[in-house]
Batch of 2 targets.
Target 1
Amino acid sequence: MQLRTRFILFIGLVICCSYGVTFYRTSSFQEDLVVEQATRQAKMLFHQIRLTRQWVADHNGLFFMKGPGVESNPFLEQGQIRDEWGNWLVKRNPAMVTRELSVYAAREGMGQFNVTSLQPMNPANAPDEFERRSLKEFENGTEERVEIEKISGRYRLRYMAPLKIDSQCLQCHSGQGYDVGDIGGGMNVTIPMDLAFAEIRTNNRMLLNIALATIVIVSLAIFFLFDILVAKRLKNLAREMDQYPVRRSMQNPLPEEDDEIGALAGHYRKLCQRLELSQQELGSTREQVFQSEKLAALGRLVAGISHEINNPLGGMQNCIQMMKRSTDQPDLQVRYLNLLAQGVDRIKGTVRQLLNIGRNEPLELQWGNVDEMIRDCLELTCMGRRTVTVDLQLDADKPVFVGMEALRQVVMNLAGNAVQAMGAEGGTLRATSRLEDDRLLVEISDTGPGLDPKHLDKIFDPFFTTKEVGEGTGLGLSVSHSLVKQMDGELTARNGEEGGAIFTIIVPLTGEAATGEENEP
């Protein structure tokens, strides 16, 4: 996930959480505020009705002319009287005034109110569950109660406070055992809350829409600002890093603003300068080391070749001196001439090894018996060495079409190295051959000290040798490796489990060479 995406998601999450908390607190605050306002309205209405009741009680009730809808109260003594004109007047006490005003208020949608008691004189004033709980709590010292009810999907606020007995109340309630100051009951005020809660839901939807719109706008703004101020500049810096050092001229200039990315670009420029300076110093040092290694390699080569050439030259010089002294002895002349020829051949072989380095001349392919060639090479190499035992396990029992002379030179080099590695104490020189999966496999091994593991990756390098100066030029294995490569083969070296070195030659055979069908002219 890209940094920009993660940054926007994180900011969006923070905004959502912030708006969520704000939305929750705002919604709760609205509800609390509406409930508080409705409670205040209920209290005002309660006190207005209480004062009305007090006024009615202070005037010993109200009398109205009896008529339809204005009937006498059967629960009052002297519930009706007749005036001097013969009209019947019915009495209205505070409880009836309260109930009838409540009917008018409910009709206008202003709420309802009624008086109730645990010992009502009128069964119609019996308390409901909320009123009963409130009256019991009033007896325990509670001064008022407020509760939100939901009935048939509609909300209403109910407020109730106690009504205390005064002297005027005893005119009607003296028979119930009340004294002045006792709680005779309570008055309940009910305020409808549907409109208020509908407003709250409307406000919540508006706040939610504002929150969503704000989140979208802020996210888009952050997206484009991040892209312009951060992502685009980082891409330019990354592109320049990818192109360095191939293209050092910046297609898109690096940011130079005085901020964190500008500082990073500045550090990158300084890093490039240090790298270029280090490359220059490294190049100079590498050239010096290369010249030193080249001079050292040349010195080893010259020392080795000088020894290889000086030895036969010294013998040849001795032969010439002896020929000068014995001009009258033809047999000695012939013998010394043969020695001179051998010395020339030896110098010629050394020069040929030197010239074969790095050359890739096509090999001369011919049919030949590999097993016989290996026997001849090992017999020639071990001639006169009685301490060396030759163990031959040759199973390539048919002629093959390969670079026979190149393979002969490789076997001679490997066998000579093996004999020299075993030294004067001698050992066993083992050679194996076989044909396997259209390939010729030849393995030359010895029982000498083996190869140093730290030299295994260098033994085929030109001029590399572990022998003393004059004992070798470091060309034998390098030339052998090159010859096998020209045959598309592979020459590898490893140490045996019981000691000694093992060299393996693998040469692929194709066409007639693979089938073994000889087709010589």
Target 2
Amino acid sequence: MKRRQAFSLGNTVVVIAVASTLAFTVAAASLNHLNYSNRVSNGIQAQNIAESTLALVTEKLLNEKSEDLGKLREAGSSFTFQLNGGQGFITFNPDQAGKWELPYSTNNLDGPNPVPGYTATKPIPQNSAQLIARGTIGGVSRQVECILYIPPFPYAVATAGPFHSTGKLVVGALDDALPDGEKPAPEEILKANLASNSRDAKALVLGPDSRVSGDVRSAGGVETDETVYIGGRIRPGSDPVKLPQETVTNYDPEHFYDPKTNSYTTRPNLQKVPPGLNNSPKVSGFAKCTGDLNVKGGLELDGGVLYVDGNVIIDGGIRGKGALFVTRDLGLYGSTQMKTDNKVAVVSGGNVSIFGSGQESSMFQGMLWNKGAFSAQHITLMGVLIQADENATTDINDASLYYQSSQGKLDMTISSPGSVDVTKGNIHISALGLPITGIVTGSAVFEVYPTTAADGHWEVVDPNSRQIYSVPNKAAVRDKVKEIWNGSTSGGLVGVGPGGSGVLVVPLTVLGPLFWPNYNAELNDIPAREPGASQMLTPGSSERITIDPNQLLSRKDKVRLLYWRAR
């Protein structure tokens, strides 16, 4: 009996011990499972926080007012966010990244070239941004990395209204500009797309012998001749594409923004082009014409910007590098020679018509944007063509349209000559034996002075062209003044400086056959100055101008996600 009781007691103790062990084991397993579940949950939340941090900073990057965010990697370009009980971190500053033990982000969205990222062997491409964010909650961290990319404007031709071609149309892309007078071989023509946002049944019509190397896309219908070749897809009924929008009057050069005063100021050195007939004008710097302009012999832009408040007709094409802004209609006629160094941006608020003498002999290189109807024939257009009026039609006949990103945008520095400062006085000029003080009218006033340079050259300042000319000696001053003065009058100009620093030249009708016979004696007392030290001219200026169809779109309309990784 006692043995049975002892056995039962022993069994009970063993059972209790086993049960206790099982209970502790189950509790420990439950606790581990709970910890694991919490870590999994925190890991998911940490990744969500990191993704939310990327989204918040992406919003800052895509906001045009924050386009320089992180570009200089300054100390202020670091951000922390309190999100769902955790924290998100991202920085563009390498020093702060080291403290956080987090790779730094890089903004190269506006960069023309690749730049180093946090990994030296993986540079960040141009027009891209690498964003790396960390989310932390409950002791768990997750990191998310992405690369944003802004591609070039993807269409060789994009129109808001219907696009009609009667035939012999070529749409393609080229890596390089065409050599002078040459036509590309078929194998050199790369893929380029054509798009129309018109919803008409005949929104996009391609006539006989037309060739499009890429996609043909339309919000409405697409109609093609049986001889048409299309290298990509035909996509009728597609969503409209985002088109760059612009207002021509925004480019009026009469007033420019002064960041020092946060206001608009009258441009002091703006050149005025008279309306009416002009023969072969050459524009450098900023120029404006108020009224209709008729150009014979072609327009040359020598690093110039011409703004015309009216209609423009140009017979002879456009040469050189620069920009033409027209508030109303533009007609471009005649042969423009194929020159690889030509690049022009044209922005028109009205209709544009371009007529050449043949695809092999006439070319326009650059960007064309207009708000009205567009027509072109017998010409090669290299760059980008954008028509932004849904109620107007684009008509093309016997023309090649080649997309090239480098030709489709204009980025240059405009150097403007100094302006004549008519507010300065203290003029003392001895000319023809007559001392004159004050404002001179009815005559041309040239500023003349010897320089302190080792070669002892002189400088002659022409207030009409606002140029400083260098001549070797005093004897050459007379010849230079006679060369650059055209015999007309120029009133209201003021020379400056004591000691006779200016030269007064009266009209030819007064001067007669003689031209400044006593120049030697009249230049004796002019004090020497440093080269380029004109007191009549204010210093020249330079201003960068960029016209890019991609920049006319908001970043939200053009950004793409190139890479995504979470860990």
